[in-house]
Amino acid sequence: MIHLIGSHFELFRCGVEILMGAPMDPLSSVNSKVHTKKDFSDSFTTGETRKEQTAEGLYAPTNFSTMLSTGGRDDDRDYLVESKDCNYAKGRWVADSRKPLYSGFGCKQWLSEMWACRLTQRTDFPYETFKWQPENCRMPEFEKTTFLRRMQDKTVAFVGDSLGRQQFQSLICMVTGCEEIPDVHNIGSHYGLVKARGAIRPDGWAYRFPSCNTTILYYWSATLCDLEPLNITDPKTEFAMHLDRPAAFLRDYLHRFDVLVLNTGQHWNRGKLVGNRWVIFFSSHDSELSSGQSHLGMFFNRDWNTGGTCDNSIPLAGGSEVLQDESSDPVIESAVKGLKVKILDITAISQLRDEGHLSKYTIRPTEGMQDCLHWCLPGIPDTWNELLSAQL
């Protein structure tokens, strides 16, 4: 159980959008802008405003997924000029014979079995064959070589819960092309991502592509906040969660990241949090937390893990288009007003694709509980990464 400690929640507000920074400033060399660990540690502790941080190349965090970027390349300038005003959240789903971008069978090395729906009892796979098409701008096709070239000498980091892990695994599959033995090095130990004694898995993974010196990593942090054990001698101890302090992993390694995708949401609920000493504070944000939680997936009748259903198998049964110009979350839109930040709202995009959830299908012989939070892979998280690549 986690106890809430602190009085500043705005820094890590939850919900379901991607809040992406303005296009990266073109740089002739990755070394033309270097950050140190002290630079980022100071920004967390000296009380800089989010607007001040944005001016230095950081972008205000938000709900479902947040991308922070600090660099770019000259050879991308033409494309950025062409699409700088694109509203990627407005458009439609269209059939695409080139999808999926990888095979659920061929990418078993990187995919968790429970998310590779080709390995489950599921027999319908049309959900794999659609792409997102923005209404008034061109979004280039994702190409692994181009992406790795653009990310040469850079680090792309995903920090968050299991949805962030899905997006991480999706991107790894997209850039490896499902090669059985790709030229990829496991460098988890460089970030302290080593499986502890008795643990099922490490707290994350980090892989480097030596051909371009690109690193892609993931770290598990369900709330993005600092967790402190109440009794360090008790392995079953509860934890205090400090809302005004980022996860230690971020404080330690943020200076190494060129692109950072943050996500949080599902773990902000009363089943996993206890408003202990700060009950009044916790209650004051209850409506926001509940709102963020309800946007995380298509849960009909109940929450995702309590008997609700999402077993539709017909693609785009609820429509194929998103027509509104405004964000689905006016709270987030208001929070970043006046900042050099672009919101990419994937809520409406994803809500049209309820048939892409794991639903009742598992790797076990029998069907399981309906999972209306996570997605089949290949699937919708691939689109999130295509949008991320386009925004970069």
Automatic annotation (TrEMBL):
InterPro entries per record: TBL, TBL_C, TBL_N
Domain of life: Eukaryota
Name of the molecule in the record: Trichome birefringence-like N-terminal domain-containing protein
Presence of the UniProt keyword Nucleotidyltransferase in the record: no
GO molecular function: O-acetyltransferase activity
Residue ranges crossing the lipid bilayer per the database entry: none
Alphabetical list of PANTHER family matching this protein: PROTEIN TRICHOME BIREFRINGENCE-LIKE 16 (PTHR32285:SF235), PROTEIN TRICHOME BIREFRINGENCE-LIKE 9-RELATED (PTHR32285)
Cell location: Membrane
GO cellular component, one term: membrane
Record key words, sorted: Membrane, Signal-anchor, Transmembrane, Transmembrane helix
Trichome birefringence-like N-terminal domain ranges (all copies): 85-137
Residue span, Trichome birefringence-like C-terminal domain: 139-283, 299-390
UniProt similarity note: Belongs to the PC-esterase family. TBL subfamily.
Main location: membrane
Membrane topology: Single-pass membrane protein
